[in-house]
Design a protein that fits this description.
The structure holds two protein chains of two kinds. Chain A is mainly alpha-helical. Helices cover 73% and strands 3% of the residues of chain A. Chain A has 13 helices and two strands. Chain A has helices at 15-55, 72-113, 118-126, 133-143, 149-156, 159-165, 178-202, 206-214, 219-230, 232-248, 251-256, 264-275, 278-303; strands at 57-60, 64-67. Chain A has a two-stranded antiparallel ribbon. In chain A, helix 2 (72-113) packs across helix 13 (278-303). Chain B is mostly helical. Chain B folds into two domains: 4-52, no CATH class; 62-233, MetI-like fold. Chain B is globular and about 70 Å long. The chains are: A mainly alpha, B mainly alpha. Chains A and B meet through helix 1, helix 2, helix 3, helix 4 and helix 7 of A and helix 2, helix 4, helix 5, helix 6 and helix 7 of B.
Chain lengths: 309, 268
């Protein structure tokens, strides 16, 4: 592309200046990249190195920590906290599936059915962002309060009996149960599902729907064979943008859950900020990172969309 | 032949979509309603009686407005820095071929593909090891870091969808590289840059996890809310949450009205 930039009036004998300009031009991308990439190297990659070194240190707060290549920490941390790891993946996975099921109809509605309401609906999807998510998460404490109308209705229609059987709730309470945490996670990350879904749905040429209809495809078939496959990039990035942050979240488990719903994020947070056992905390966050990266890589390979950024 | 059942089937998507929207809006409604509450205890979770006290005195709680202004400052600086750095990277990646492209791509992608807590913990490891005092600057550094990738993604998407022939046309009409950039490329890329900046501002202003790890004793607005969830939630939190919501909606709507007017004013 840059090769076509040669000015049309440049005659052939102007070879040397053109050559020098092209060298300078070849350096342009590096100058553009330099500050940002440097920032990421120093404040994203380097911290990882420090954390790696912290995770193989032993010692105590009083005597200081020293690198002793103590890899045992990883095994100890994993065996001690694997229930929290499993719980995190389970809650995050459930929340992701719920986000997809709840988010798809809304994204579809905004993309194809909203007409002149489209912008208003988009604003309504984004606007809650501007009320701090902590305040909104606290609001769920009110909504799901014991004996409140929401819990009452859920109890009356037998929903809580089903979730009790699944081990998601206990008795007629929702707060401080896994259901409350999953509900909070789903709520918090829904916009991250809806926006990518919307942007890939919006790009679909509606004439494809008409064409499928003309070829006698029923609406359900049109959706299964045309719309959904074409929205796959949105599905993939939406599920990633939901699952990844949800797996490391500790806010919902702390505010809406109980000690029985502690996720791995809660453990890492308390190890780092309260117990001050830095090696264990570092090892735990590396294990979390490894699990998430492996799952994401497999998922992206399977879904076949490599270029996400 | 419109029986209720076919009507329901036809509008199933609309009904389900609106139900989801209700689920997303409900907490905001609760926040707004409870900003007029007059709770008896320390916590504002149960409705007592209508009161305008909190709205009359939004800064009536110690440290609340200080934390709010700190968050706004951090969000502003983080947005400016991340937008500048990110836009430059996005242009380099779309418009130039260079070595190490794959590595740069991964480096941009990784911060978005990592649970926030991992970055939070590793940054804390860096700051602790280096003996850097936690506070305003460490928060700002962290926010710029995680906003950067989102700006790159937003700007890149916009620049990629640009028709390169527009720039070629400008050059054919004897516009220099700088002139082409300022008068053609930048205006077309502007919505992408604006989207990236807005996203940065929202992400930074509302960030909790990374800030929780790297703030030391500095209290941003989300940190204040987190602390109050343990000590007692003042009604003023809801007032500020509601005000932010209303202001955001008004700003977006005003922006759209200006956009629409401009579109109408433009000759075909």
């Amino acid at each position: 592309m840059t090769a076509t930039a040669a000015p049309p009036q440049a005659p052939a004998q102007a070879e040397p200046p053109v050559h020098r300009a092209s060298l300078r031009k070849r350096l342009i991308p590096y100058w553009l990249l330099l500050p940002g990439i440097l920032w990421l190297l120093v404040f994203f990659v380097l911290p990882m190195v420090y954390q790696a070194s912290t995770s193989v240190q032993t010692g105590s707060l009083e005597e200081g920590f020293r690198v002793t290549w103590h890899f045992q920490t990883y095994w100890d941390a994993f065996t001690e906290y694997y229930p929290q790891f499993l719980r995190s993946l389970l809650y995050a996975g459930t929340a992701t599936v719920l986000c997809l099921m709840l988010g798809y109809p809304l994204a579809y509605l905004i993309a194809f059915k909203a007409g002149r309401w489209r912008n208003l609906l988009l604003v309504l999807v984004i606007a809650p962002f501007f009320t701090s998510f902590l305040i909104r998460t606290l609001a769920w404490k009110t909504i799901l309060a014991d004996g409140g109308p929401v819990v009452g209705v859920l109890n009356d229609i037998g929903f809580l009996d089903v979730t009790s059987l699944l081990g998601m709730t206990q008795g007629d309470r929702v707060l401080a149960t896994p259901l409350a945490v999953v509900c909070g996670l789903t709520y918090n990350f829904l916009p991250f599902m809806i926006l990518p879904l919307y942007s890939s749905l919006e790009r679909i040429d509606t004439r494809l729907h008409e064409a499928a209809g003309d070829l006698y495809a029923r609406p359900a078939t049109v959706f299964r064979k045309v719309t959904f496959p074409l929205s796959m990039p949105g599905v993939v990035s939406g599920t990633l943008l939901t699952f990844i942050p949800a797996s490391g979240d500790y806010v919902n488990a702390e505010l809406l859950g109980s000690t029985d719903t502690r996720m791995i994020g809660n453990v890492i947070q308390s190890q780092y900020l309260r117990i001050l056992d830095y090696p264990t905390a570092a090892a735990l966050s590396f294990i979390l990172m490894a699990i998430v990266l492996i799952m994401v890589t497999i998922y992206i390979r399977r879904a076949g969309t490599e270029d996400l950024v | 032949m419109r029986t209720p059942i076919t009507w329901l089937r036809r509008n199933l998507v609309v009904i389900a979509g609106l139900a989801t929207l209700a689920y997303m809006i409900l907490p905001n409604v609760v926040v707004t309603v409870f900003s007029f509450n007059n709770p008896t205890g320390r916590f504002n979770y149960a409705w007592q009686e209508f009161s305008l006290d909190a709205w009359k005195d939004p800064c009536g709680v110690a440290d609340l407005c200080g934390s709010l202004s700190l968050s706004l400052q951090i969000a502003l600086w983080a947005t400016l820095a991340a937008t500048a750095l990110g836009t430059a990277i996005a242009f380099a990646m779309v418009r130039y071929r260079f070595r190490g492209r794959g590595a740069v791509n991964s480096l941009i992608f990784l911060p978005m593909a990592m649970p926030e807590i991992v970055m939070a913990a590793s940054l804390l490891a860096l700051f602790l090891n280096m003996g850097i005092q936690l506070g305003f600057w460490t928060i700002l550094i962290a926010h710029i870091m995680f906003c950067l990738s989102f700006v790159v993604a937003a700007v890149k998407a916009r620049v990629l969808s640009m028709d390169p022939r527009l720039e070629e046309a400008a050059r054919d009409l004897y516009a220099g590289p700088v002139q082409t950039f300022v008068r053609v490329t930048l205006p077309i890329a502007a919505p992408g840059i604006a989207a990236g900046a807005l996203l940065s501002f929202a992400l930074s202003f509302d960030d909790f996890i990374i800030t929780n790890f790297n703030s030391g004793n500095t209290v941003t607005f989300p940190m204040f809310v987190w602390g109050s969830a343990q000590r007692g939630t003042p009604v003023q939190i809801n007032v500020i949450g509601t005000a932010m919501f209303v202001i955001a909606v008004l700003v977006v709507l005003a922006g759209q009205m200006v956009g629409n007017r401009r579109k109408k004013a433009q000759p075909k």
